[in-house]
Design brief:
Layout: E1 2-7, H1 13-26, E2 33-38, H2 40-49, E3 59-61, E4 79-85, H3 87-94, H4 101-111, E5 115-120, H5 127-138, E6 142-143, H6 157-172
Parallel strand pairs: 1-2, 1-4, 2-3, 4-5, 5-6
Helix pairs in contact: 1-6, 3-5
Bound molecules: flavin mononucleotide.
């Protein structure tokens, strides 16, 4: 699988880190090669939320470098994830604003009918965001809000982050154990709920 991972300037750099850590460790075993692109704000948010700058064994492209292979449909990339995806990046993608490499690469994914996953992080959601979400969903993208789940009993922030990234990896068809899967109520929680 040839994968593009784009990181934009929404809060949620730990989601990007978790995905990139997984790909660095397990990607080769699954035949995944990744190309990275960070928006300018993504680097600032990464420094704020994690510290320093991202270091990975993948090629990192400038967000203004339209010579990247995945800026063209002929390069046959399989999938792209924008994680986290800012409301701005969502809106640019929704309306085909290929003004940066992230926007162009997403535009290519949609026109080539390839997998595009947008891990949107914004709250509250305005009508503009809702319409942009509808537009990208209609065009074939997956919008996966960065909304962690609790039913697997995460104990740490890292495990909570894992509940989001696990589902992103699911969309990419990459087996992972970043969260405990739902297998039904545990015997304890299956006890009758007390009336209140
Ligand atoms: C610390 C920090 C946190 C931010 N969090 C969000 C967020 O959660 N969602 C969002 O849409 N924008 C957020 N922003 C604003 C975006 O960075 C801003 O809209 C920027 O233009 C997005 O650019 P990009 O899409 O090119 O990365 C945040 C900015 C900073 C500095």
């Amino acid at each position: 699988m040839k994968l593009v991972v784009a990181v934009s300037g929404a809060s949620g750099a730990p989601y990007a880190r978790k995905l990139l850590d997984f790909l660095a460790e397990h990607g080769p075993r699954h035949g995944v090669s990744a190309d990275l692109v960070f928006t300018t704000t993504a680097k600032q948010v990464w420094a704020q939320e994690i510290g320093g700058s991202p270091k990975y064994p993948f090629k990192i492209w400038s967000n203004q470098d339209f010579t990247a292979p995945f800026a063209s449909g002929s390069s046959m990339y399989d999938a792209m994830v924008v994680i986290p995806c800012s409301a701005g990046a969502l809106s640019r993608i929704a309306y085909g604003m290929s003004v940066d490499l992230v926007g162009r690469a997403a535009d290519v994914m949609l026109k080539e009918r390839r997998r595009l996953v947008l891990v949107l992080r914004e709250t509250p959601i305005s009508l503009i965001h809702a319409r942009a979400m509808t537009q990208v969903i209609e065009a074939g993208a997956f919008v996966m809000p960065a909304s962690p789940s609790f039913y697997s009993g995460p104990k740490t922030i890292d495990e909570l982050v894992g509940t989001v990234v696990a589902r992103v990896l699911d969309r990419l068809g990459l087996p992972n154990e970043l969260m405990q899967r739902w297998t039904g109520l545990s015997p304890k929680s299956a006890e009758p709920v007390e009336e209140i």
